[in-house]
Specification:
Structural class: mainly alpha
Distance between the termini: 59 Å
Order of helices and strands: HHHHHHH
Radius of gyration: 24 Å
Number of helices: 7
């Protein structure tokens, strides 16, 4: 009903506020805010937002050194993320579980780190494919416009020239934007994979000494 929808939106805003409070290191306020939001989100079965809240609770537990509580929260977040197919939440939870288990259960920590690495690679490929698909769609639409214009006998040569020029400019602009976004995604992915390799190397070093 409308009342439940209003409550759900208010709870989502509380979760967003908690993220801002965490960024400001106001951890107690953040935890209190999440505690208010979580029961409402669970009551309305907003699984995606609930999983985000559990990730936030996991982060807060890591920050205060309570790795057992962090593992519990992150495990809940990951189960929910898998059920909804939310790879962003799953990725965050997997890295959180690596942090939670690295000192107490190295084998389990390594498993979660590897899953985190796999997710990062998969999401990079999906973002790249989506951008290329978007550009391909724009190109196909421009080709269709050209074809329709050629079939029309009503347009003057000058009018056709203007249309084709505009299409060419839009295609070039689309290509430049796509290339920029691809470069940004690749740079971000490279930085992420270097970070993962550094974490993995440090983890292996710690395990063998």
């Amino acid at each position: 009903d409308k009342h439940g929808e209003r409550d759900s939106k208010a709870a989502i805003r509380l979760s967003q506020m908690a993220a801002a409070l965490i960024a400001l290191h106001r951890y107690q306020e953040a935890e209190s805010t999440i505690s208010r939001a979580l029961p409402i989100l669970e009551a309305v079965n907003n699984t995606n937002s609930v999983s985000i809240c559990y990730n936030q609770l996991g982060q807060l537990a890591i920050d205060r050194g309570d790795t057992a509580a962090a593992a519990t929260h992150y495990e809940k977040a990951r189960v929910l993320a898998i059920s909804t197919g939310n790879k962003n939440v799953d990725r965050t939870a997997s890295y959180g579980l690596f942090q939670a288990y690295r000192d107490t259960d190295p084998a389990k920590a390594l498993k979660h780190l590897e899953h985190y690495s796999t997710l990062c690679d998969s999401m990079y490929k999906q973002e790249t494919a989506a951008l290329l698909g978007q550009f391909h769609s724009q190109y196909q639409n421009s080709q269709l416009t050209k074809k329709n214009d050629l079939l029309s006998q009503k347009n003057s040569n000058q009018h056709q020239l203007i249309i084709w020029s505009v299409i060419a400019i839009l295609l070039l602009l689309g290509l430049l934007i796509t290339l920029y976004c691809l470069l940004h995604i690749r740079t971000k992915a490279t930085r992420m994979m270097r970070h993962i390799e550094k974490v993995r190397l440090n983890f292996y070093t710690k395990m063998t000494h």
